Amino acid sequence: MRSGTSPFRTGRLSSWKLARESKEQTRKREFKLPVISNPKTFPSSVLGGDGLYYVSFDGVARFEIAFRQKTVTLFDIAEDASAEAIAHLLNDHVAPRILAGAGDLVIHASAVEIEGQLAVFLGETGSGKSTLAASLHNAGHRLLGDDAIILETGSHGVVGQSVYPSLRLYPESITAVLDEAVESAPMAHYSKKHRLNMPAIEEADSTPTEVGAFFFLVDDSDDEGVAAHAIAPALTCMGLIENSFALDSDDAATAEKRFQAASQVVECVPGFELSYPWDFDLLPKIHAEIASCLQR
């Protein structure tokens, strides 16, 4: 997306400040952070003293989150860390965890508005959440975002809102699902995905929208059919929890609040398991199945 698109420029984190620490400043720190050996895409959050959190991405960079000062400080940056990678970690990993740490229920999902309702797609990395969302956008439906969605329960049901508008696809998906030529740039130096520059998505209305259904994507490579099956609220709740962002996974109190919030959500919104073999030619059938579920 364009350089101006960031959850720290608009939305709930616009009051936060960003800072970058020099190598000399890092060396002068009075404590030593533990060595993290997790994959780059799965950060380890360490709670420090005085209300500080440290989110580490092995071999790329670390971020200090100070809630009282509303400041995110980037430090311990690897020599080969690209600017695109840093922006990706900040916007797609750190930002949703800050919101989760502040009490929001934030899930790793893509969301598209279809006839006034949000279809929210969840699944493992590589399950096709972004590609499916992009194909629906190309079919004329509004894409909110393809990575992090904030869920809120109110007197009139559940609404969803993207942390910020984004769309990231593999090159083959860009060619297959988008009719128009779009600008794109590598998402990070360690990923083949590209971040797309699509003003229509970035400038769309960001008002929270009613959630119609959750779809958990399943790659059914052994079957040629497309099918959506309703699942029990308890399974939907656990699916939301499993796909939710957390700043400190060991914080029992916050985990309990996240579970309570998810439990309230599934009282109002149904969940479906959407299975299909991954074939771009089947996308129209998948779209029809999604629309059918939303109309039930």
Quick synopsis:
Helices cover 28% and strands 30% of the residues.
Provide an overview of this structure.
This protein has 296 residues and is α+β, with helices and mostly antiparallel strands. 28% of the residues lie in helices and 30% in strands. It has 8 helices and 17 strands. The strands form 3 sheets. Strands 6, 7, 8, 9, 10, 11, 15, 16 and 17 form a 9-stranded mixed β-sheet that branches. The chain has a 5-stranded mixed β-sheet with strand order 1-5-4-3-2, covered by helices on one side. Strand 10 (148-154) and strand 11 (157-162) form a beta hairpin. The radius of gyration is 19 Å and the shape is globular.
What key attributes describe this structure?
296 residues, alpha+beta, five-stranded mixed sheet, nine-stranded mixed sheet
